[in-house]
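Quarterly update, task 2.4: S-adenosylmethionine-bound model.
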Amino acid sequence: MKDRRLLACAELCVGKRAADVGTDHAYLPIYLVENGICESALACDINEGPLASALDNIKKAGLSDKIETYLSNGLDSVPSVGITDVIIAGMGGELIADIISRAEWIKSRRVNLVLQPMTKWDHLRKYLYDGGYTIINEIPCAEGKFVYSVLQAQYTGDAPDFPCDLAYQYGGRVDGTTKEGAMYLLRQASRLENAGKGLLRDPQQADKAKEFLDAAGALREKAIDGGEMIEQ
Ligand SMILES: C[S@@+](CC[C@H](N)C(=O)[O-])C[C@H]1O[C@@H](n2cnc3c(N)ncnc32)[C@H](O)[C@@H]1O
């Protein structure tokens, strides 16, 4: 598996039995089991086409006894027994939050969440913050002209001792001292700036515009490496 994004997901898995939600070709569960990161895995998808491809790849890898497939909307039809890691990657942040919210058993310190939003990362980080989930780590990774962040989170029930402001919603816990971290923060800063400039057109939104522009400035300051701007 060469996909930097999926490799970052694998790096954040810690347990024995992983459920990959929206598995598509099952590349990630195959990698996790082949490399001894997990003993067994569940490859889950809402659509029959991707699941058929997953099944085929699992058979070809000779891992049918270690990786089960489930046709399921999120985790709705997936048995939770023994699951230590839940990975939800390559979807929008709102859908990821919705899938988490429907699986009550995820609210446990025993479950490690690995989440990679393609969009609406602000919604996802706020959902986690408000819901008592702690973001433990984030791995930023650049692929071609895209830069993503993979989040590792866990339910703790704790109220964080920092505000869930726009800088956090867009930049999360990404470390700006690394090249990819700086790239991610600069990209997010640019998004905040564009939104802030748009708001400036309406004099009644001046305060909100300032919030966006200040958050952009905060992320630029955190991008210590200097990075390299990615347009996407
Ligand atoms: C863009 S692919 C991402 C594949 C892989 N996780 C990755 O990150 O490369 C999204 C996959 O999620 C599946 N999917 C979309 N909504 C879903 C849901 N509510 N529950 C489970 N799977 C879903 C799609 O069928 C598709 O296979």
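Highlight for this quarter: The longest strand covers residues 133-143.
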